[in-house]
Design goal:
The protein is of the alpha+beta class. The protein contains six helices and eight strands.
Amino acid sequence: MHHKLKGIVIREIPKGETSRLLTVLTSNLGVITVNAKGVRKLSSPYLKCAQQFAFSNMLLYEKNGFYTLVEAALIADFYSLRKDIKDYSLACYLCEAASSFSIPGEESASILRLLLNSLYALENKLSSRALIKSCFEIRLCAECGFLPETAFCAECGSELGNDDFLFSIVGGVALCRDCATAGNDYIRLPNAVGKAIAHITESELARFLSFRISQSDEAVLSGVAERFLLARAERGFKTLSFYKHCEELQ
């Protein structure tokens, strides 16, 4: 059976002398492994399509659940992300996180679009790395059904307005000052961060990075976004550790 689809290579592993095994996030089939024969040859017409971060139209042949690359046409390669170790490490983390939330064999178009928008923003420096990371983490959770609620109190239902509030990492809900109780699960968030989270989750994907936030509030957003995603993923990411190590480099 043949499949025509769009996909981005999130990982590549050498196979033999001239081939590669590709981990591909696709629009229709989620994350799949593709055998790309002969693509390491300089003469291969699909050399650029079989590299990490390459986004292509693909024709795949499937037999017994195994996929082989037949044809590919490059759409974008995001190759410049390889030139800066901090950009590269963040791109690797975004790819790994996206793949972990994608269900094999199921439609993943929204996750793929989010990843592509985030890589484009990173490549073109549309926002800081920290803000791109935070927005990606929050929006990825929202796209997968884990929508954080920051507009209303989960206990009394009152609108939070312009006040600071407590946010539950585990529950994904907010408590107003009157209903707030201390606990390890709760983080006190400024109202500006709550509004930023609402914008990230509710805006059109093309505009989910289009907002302003102070440097101090950006740092708070960064912390809560990462903890919120890790709680939903129920796992850690080696690429996240790699990114943090790279950010510490001068």
